[in-house]
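Re: that chain you flagged

S.,

Sorry for the slow reply, it's been a week of failed gels. I finally had a moment to sit down with the sequence you sent. For the record, here it is as I used it:
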Amino acid sequence: MRRRALFALPLLAAPALARAQPAPLAVVASFTILADMARQVGGDRVAVTFIVGPDMDSHIFQARPSHAEALRNAGLVLCNGIGFEPWLDRLLGAASPRGQVVTVTQGITPRTLAGGHEHGGRQPRAAGPRVPDPHAWQDLRLAATYLGNIEAGLIAADPAGAETYRARAADYRGRLAALDSWVRDQVGSVPEGRRKVITNHDAFGYFGDAYGVTFLAPQGLSTHGEPSAADIGGLIRQMRAERITAVFLENATNPAIIERLAREAGARVQGRLYADALSPEGGPAPSYEALFRHNLGLLVPAMRGNG
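Prediction finished late last night. Pasting the C-alpha coordinates below so you have them in one place:
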Protein backbone atom coordinates (compact mmCIF):
# COMPACT_ATOMS: atom_id res chain seq x y z
CA MET A 1 0.00 0.00 0.00
CA ARG A 2 2.79 2.40 0.95
CA ARG A 3 4.59 1.59 -2.31
CA ARG A 4 1.46 2.41 -4.39
CA ALA A 5 1.13 5.75 -2.58
CA LEU A 6 4.73 6.65 -3.43
CA PHE A 7 4.15 5.84 -7.09
CA ALA A 8 1.10 8.15 -7.05
CA LEU A 9 3.09 11.18 -5.87
CA PRO A 10 4.38 12.22 -9.33
CA LEU A 11 0.84 11.96 -10.72
CA LEU A 12 -0.48 14.21 -7.98
CA ALA A 13 2.38 16.68 -8.45
CA ALA A 14 1.88 17.07 -12.21
CA PRO A 15 -1.31 19.20 -11.98
CA ALA A 16 0.32 21.34 -9.30
CA LEU A 17 3.33 21.97 -11.55
CA ALA A 18 1.03 22.85 -14.44
CA ARG A 19 -0.79 25.35 -12.22
CA ALA A 20 2.55 26.88 -11.20
CA GLN A 21 3.37 27.91 -14.79
CA PRO A 22 2.80 31.70 -15.00
CA ALA A 23 0.28 32.94 -17.53
CA PRO A 24 1.80 34.94 -20.39
CA LEU A 25 1.98 38.68 -19.81
CA ALA A 26 -0.90 40.39 -21.62
CA VAL A 27 0.59 43.10 -23.86
CA VAL A 28 -1.56 45.44 -25.96
CA ALA A 29 0.16 47.41 -28.73
CA SER A 30 -1.51 50.33 -30.46
CA PHE A 31 -0.67 48.99 -33.95
CA THR A 32 0.87 46.00 -35.69
CA ILE A 33 4.50 47.14 -35.97
CA LEU A 34 4.76 47.59 -32.20
CA ALA A 35 2.99 44.27 -31.67
CA ASP A 36 5.60 42.49 -33.79
CA MET A 37 8.47 44.15 -31.90
CA ALA A 38 6.92 43.09 -28.58
CA ARG A 39 6.60 39.49 -29.77
CA GLN A 40 10.22 39.44 -30.91
CA VAL A 41 11.42 40.61 -27.49
CA GLY A 42 8.85 38.78 -25.36
CA GLY A 43 8.71 35.38 -27.00
CA ASP A 44 6.56 32.80 -25.21
CA ARG A 45 6.38 34.90 -22.04
CA VAL A 46 3.96 37.37 -23.65
CA ALA A 47 0.54 37.27 -25.30
CA VAL A 48 0.44 40.27 -27.62
CA THR A 49 -2.62 41.82 -29.21
CA PHE A 50 -3.01 45.04 -31.18
CA ILE A 51 -5.70 47.69 -31.54
CA VAL A 52 -5.17 48.87 -35.13
CA GLY A 53 -4.84 45.75 -37.25
CA PRO A 54 -3.02 44.78 -40.45
CA ASP A 55 -3.55 47.06 -43.46
CA MET A 56 -5.46 49.55 -41.27
CA ASP A 57 -4.85 53.29 -41.01
CA SER A 58 -3.99 54.49 -37.48
CA HIS A 59 -4.52 58.14 -38.46
CA ILE A 60 -8.29 57.72 -38.97
CA PHE A 61 -8.96 54.74 -36.69
CA GLN A 62 -12.20 54.60 -34.70
CA ALA A 63 -11.86 52.71 -31.39
CA ARG A 64 -14.61 50.45 -30.02
CA PRO A 65 -15.58 49.57 -26.41
CA SER A 66 -13.85 46.19 -26.80
CA HIS A 67 -10.55 48.02 -27.27
CA ALA A 68 -11.01 49.79 -23.93
CA GLU A 69 -11.64 46.41 -22.29
CA ALA A 70 -8.42 45.00 -23.77
CA LEU A 71 -6.43 47.96 -22.48
CA ARG A 72 -8.01 47.70 -19.04
CA ASN A 73 -6.83 44.11 -18.62
CA ALA A 74 -3.36 44.56 -20.12
CA GLY A 75 -0.24 44.09 -18.06
CA LEU A 76 1.61 46.40 -20.46
CA VAL A 77 0.40 48.88 -23.09
CA LEU A 78 2.71 50.04 -25.90
CA CYS A 79 2.06 53.17 -27.95
CA ASN A 80 4.12 55.08 -30.50
CA GLY A 81 3.31 58.61 -29.36
CA ILE A 82 4.39 61.81 -31.19
CA GLY A 83 0.74 62.23 -32.23
CA PHE A 84 0.53 59.02 -34.27
CA GLU A 85 -2.51 57.71 -32.36
CA PRO A 86 -4.74 60.80 -31.91
CA TRP A 87 -7.57 58.63 -30.57
CA LEU A 88 -5.52 56.85 -27.90
CA ASP A 89 -5.55 59.37 -25.03
CA ARG A 90 -9.35 59.31 -24.88
CA LEU A 91 -9.36 55.51 -25.04
CA LEU A 92 -6.79 55.22 -22.24
CA GLY A 93 -8.85 57.62 -20.13
CA ALA A 94 -11.90 55.42 -20.57
CA ALA A 95 -9.99 52.18 -19.93
CA SER A 96 -7.75 53.09 -16.95
CA PRO A 97 -5.29 50.23 -17.68
CA ARG A 98 -4.00 48.27 -14.70
CA GLY A 99 -0.57 47.94 -16.36
CA GLN A 100 2.08 50.46 -17.31
CA VAL A 101 1.67 52.51 -20.51
CA VAL A 102 4.98 52.82 -22.38
CA THR A 103 5.60 55.34 -25.15
CA VAL A 104 8.21 53.55 -27.25
CA THR A 105 9.57 56.72 -28.88
CA GLN A 106 10.61 58.14 -25.51
CA GLY A 107 14.15 59.48 -26.00
CA ILE A 108 13.80 60.14 -29.74
CA THR A 109 13.96 63.73 -30.95
CA PRO A 110 11.39 63.73 -33.77
CA ARG A 111 12.02 65.29 -37.14
CA THR A 112 9.53 68.05 -37.96
CA LEU A 113 7.70 69.36 -40.98
CA ALA A 114 6.60 72.95 -41.59
CA GLY A 115 2.84 73.10 -41.48
CA GLY A 116 2.71 69.32 -41.63
CA HIS A 117 3.56 69.27 -45.32
CA GLU A 118 6.81 69.16 -47.19
CA HIS A 119 7.76 68.06 -50.69
CA GLY A 120 11.34 66.94 -50.44
CA GLY A 121 13.54 69.77 -51.72
CA ARG A 122 10.65 72.03 -52.69
CA GLN A 123 9.19 74.75 -50.50
CA PRO A 124 6.68 73.69 -47.83
CA ARG A 125 3.15 73.66 -49.16
CA ALA A 126 1.62 75.36 -46.15
CA ALA A 127 2.97 77.98 -43.80
CA GLY A 128 2.55 77.36 -40.10
CA PRO A 129 4.26 75.93 -37.03
CA ARG A 130 6.49 72.93 -37.43
CA VAL A 131 4.85 69.69 -36.38
CA PRO A 132 6.56 66.46 -35.29
CA ASP A 133 6.72 63.45 -37.59
CA PRO A 134 5.67 60.27 -35.70
CA HIS A 135 6.91 57.67 -38.24
CA ALA A 136 10.27 57.09 -36.51
CA TRP A 137 10.22 53.30 -37.04
CA GLN A 138 11.11 53.96 -40.70
CA ASP A 139 14.74 54.49 -39.58
CA LEU A 140 16.14 51.15 -38.44
CA ARG A 141 18.73 52.88 -36.25
CA LEU A 142 15.93 54.41 -34.20
CA ALA A 143 14.51 50.94 -33.65
CA ALA A 144 17.16 50.54 -30.93
CA THR A 145 15.27 53.15 -28.88
CA TYR A 146 11.97 51.40 -29.54
CA LEU A 147 13.48 48.10 -28.38
CA GLY A 148 15.07 49.63 -25.30
CA ASN A 149 11.71 51.04 -24.17
CA ILE A 150 9.86 47.80 -24.93
CA GLU A 151 12.50 45.75 -23.10
CA ALA A 152 12.36 48.00 -20.05
CA GLY A 153 8.55 47.89 -20.02
CA LEU A 154 8.48 44.10 -20.19
CA ILE A 155 11.04 43.76 -17.40
CA ALA A 156 9.10 46.17 -15.18
CA ALA A 157 5.86 44.26 -15.80
CA ASP A 158 7.46 40.79 -15.51
CA PRO A 159 10.76 40.93 -13.56
CA ALA A 160 11.04 37.14 -13.56
CA GLY A 161 11.49 37.22 -17.32
CA ALA A 162 14.27 39.83 -17.31
CA GLU A 163 16.99 37.46 -18.52
CA THR A 164 14.81 36.22 -21.38
CA TYR A 165 13.83 39.73 -22.45
CA ARG A 166 17.42 41.00 -22.39
CA ALA A 167 18.71 38.07 -24.45
CA ARG A 168 15.92 38.26 -27.02
CA ALA A 169 16.23 42.06 -27.32
CA ALA A 170 19.98 41.76 -27.92
CA ASP A 171 19.43 39.16 -30.64
CA TYR A 172 16.72 41.25 -32.30
CA ARG A 173 18.85 44.39 -32.10
CA GLY A 174 21.63 42.56 -33.92
CA ARG A 175 19.27 41.42 -36.69
CA LEU A 176 17.98 44.95 -37.19
CA ALA A 177 21.54 46.34 -37.34
CA ALA A 178 22.34 43.83 -40.09
CA LEU A 179 19.13 44.78 -41.89
CA ASP A 180 20.09 48.46 -41.67
CA SER A 181 23.42 47.70 -43.37
CA TRP A 182 21.62 45.78 -46.11
CA VAL A 183 19.21 48.66 -46.72
CA ARG A 184 22.14 51.08 -47.06
CA ASP A 185 23.83 48.77 -49.57
CA GLN A 186 20.64 48.44 -51.59
CA VAL A 187 19.96 52.19 -51.74
CA GLY A 188 23.66 52.81 -52.45
CA SER A 189 23.31 50.81 -55.66
CA VAL A 190 20.95 53.50 -57.05
CA PRO A 191 22.50 56.67 -58.54
CA GLU A 192 21.85 59.63 -56.25
CA GLY A 193 19.92 61.55 -58.90
CA ARG A 194 17.44 58.67 -59.20
CA ARG A 195 16.60 58.39 -55.50
CA LYS A 196 13.18 60.06 -55.65
CA VAL A 197 9.89 58.40 -54.77
CA ILE A 198 6.21 59.40 -54.81
CA THR A 199 3.94 57.98 -52.07
CA ASN A 200 0.52 58.82 -50.61
CA HIS A 201 1.48 60.73 -47.47
CA ASP A 202 4.57 61.86 -45.56
CA ALA A 203 5.28 58.50 -43.90
CA PHE A 204 8.83 57.90 -45.13
CA GLY A 205 10.65 61.03 -43.98
CA TYR A 206 12.82 59.16 -41.46
CA PHE A 207 13.66 56.58 -44.11
CA GLY A 208 14.61 59.36 -46.51
CA ASP A 209 16.82 61.13 -43.96
CA ALA A 210 18.52 57.89 -42.90
CA TYR A 211 19.15 56.34 -46.31
CA GLY A 212 19.39 59.28 -48.71
CA VAL A 213 16.07 59.04 -50.57
CA THR A 214 13.74 61.97 -51.33
CA PHE A 215 10.08 61.12 -50.76
CA LEU A 216 7.39 63.35 -52.26
CA ALA A 217 3.76 63.08 -51.15
CA PRO A 218 0.55 64.87 -52.11
CA GLN A 219 -0.79 64.43 -48.57
CA GLY A 220 0.82 65.55 -45.32
CA LEU A 221 1.66 63.59 -42.18
CA SER A 222 -1.93 62.47 -41.73
CA THR A 223 -4.00 60.70 -44.34
CA HIS A 224 -6.79 63.12 -43.39
CA GLY A 225 -5.06 65.74 -45.56
CA GLU A 226 -6.56 66.65 -48.92
CA PRO A 227 -4.05 68.06 -51.42
CA SER A 228 -5.02 71.17 -53.37
CA ALA A 229 -5.10 71.37 -57.15
CA ALA A 230 -1.92 73.49 -56.94
CA ASP A 231 -0.18 70.75 -54.90
CA ILE A 232 -1.14 68.10 -57.43
CA GLY A 233 -0.17 70.26 -60.40
CA GLY A 234 3.21 71.16 -58.93
CA LEU A 235 4.01 67.54 -58.15
CA ILE A 236 3.03 66.45 -61.68
CA ARG A 237 5.34 69.06 -63.20
CA GLN A 238 8.18 67.94 -60.91
CA MET A 239 7.64 64.29 -61.82
CA ARG A 240 7.83 65.10 -65.52
CA ALA A 241 10.81 67.44 -65.24
CA GLU A 242 12.86 65.08 -63.05
CA ARG A 243 11.66 61.87 -64.73
CA ILE A 244 10.51 60.33 -61.44
CA THR A 245 9.41 56.76 -62.12
CA ALA A 246 9.11 55.37 -58.57
CA VAL A 247 5.40 55.93 -57.81
CA PHE A 248 3.79 53.84 -55.07
CA LEU A 249 0.57 53.23 -53.23
CA GLU A 250 0.62 52.58 -49.49
CA ASN A 251 -1.07 49.57 -47.95
CA ALA A 252 -3.35 51.45 -45.52
CA THR A 253 -4.37 54.50 -47.57
CA ASN A 254 -6.84 55.40 -50.31
CA PRO A 255 -5.23 54.75 -53.72
CA ALA A 256 -7.31 57.30 -55.65
CA ILE A 257 -4.95 60.29 -55.27
CA ILE A 258 -1.81 58.41 -56.30
CA GLU A 259 -3.55 56.69 -59.21
CA ARG A 260 -4.76 60.06 -60.49
CA LEU A 261 -1.31 61.60 -60.01
CA ALA A 262 0.42 58.81 -61.92
CA ARG A 263 -2.14 58.92 -64.73
CA GLU A 264 -1.85 62.68 -65.25
CA ALA A 265 1.96 62.57 -65.07
CA GLY A 266 2.16 59.75 -67.60
CA ALA A 267 3.70 57.42 -65.00
CA ARG A 268 2.80 53.96 -63.74
CA VAL A 269 2.13 52.89 -60.15
CA GLN A 270 4.93 50.45 -59.29
CA GLY A 271 3.33 48.60 -56.40
CA ARG A 272 2.30 48.93 -52.78
CA LEU A 273 4.64 49.94 -49.95
CA TYR A 274 4.04 49.14 -46.29
CA ALA A 275 4.27 52.29 -44.20
CA ASP A 276 2.03 52.48 -41.10
CA ALA A 277 0.88 48.87 -40.75
CA LEU A 278 2.01 45.34 -41.46
CA SER A 279 0.25 42.91 -43.76
CA PRO A 280 -1.77 39.97 -42.41
CA GLU A 281 0.07 36.69 -41.86
CA GLY A 282 0.79 35.18 -45.26
CA GLY A 283 1.10 38.62 -46.84
CA PRO A 284 4.30 40.26 -48.08
CA ALA A 285 5.08 42.17 -44.86
CA PRO A 286 3.85 40.25 -41.80
CA SER A 287 6.77 41.48 -39.64
CA TYR A 288 8.82 44.64 -39.16
CA GLU A 289 11.84 43.01 -40.80
CA ALA A 290 9.74 41.73 -43.71
CA LEU A 291 8.34 45.24 -44.20
CA PHE A 292 11.81 46.61 -45.00
CA ARG A 293 12.72 43.71 -47.27
CA HIS A 294 9.46 44.00 -49.19
CA ASN A 295 9.71 47.77 -49.57
CA LEU A 296 13.34 47.71 -50.73
CA GLY A 297 12.51 44.97 -53.21
CA LEU A 298 10.11 47.41 -54.89
CA LEU A 299 11.89 50.72 -54.31
CA VAL A 300 15.32 49.90 -55.71
CA PRO A 301 14.31 48.71 -59.21
CA ALA A 302 11.67 51.46 -59.47
CA MET A 303 14.18 54.19 -58.60
CA ARG A 304 16.57 52.79 -61.19
CA GLY A 305 13.78 53.09 -63.76
CA ASN A 306 13.45 49.41 -64.52
CA GLY A 307 10.60 48.52 -62.16
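What I noticed first: The beta strands are 25-31, 46-52, 76-79, 100-103, 112-114, 130-132, 196-198, 214-216, 246-250, 269-273.

Talk soon,
D.
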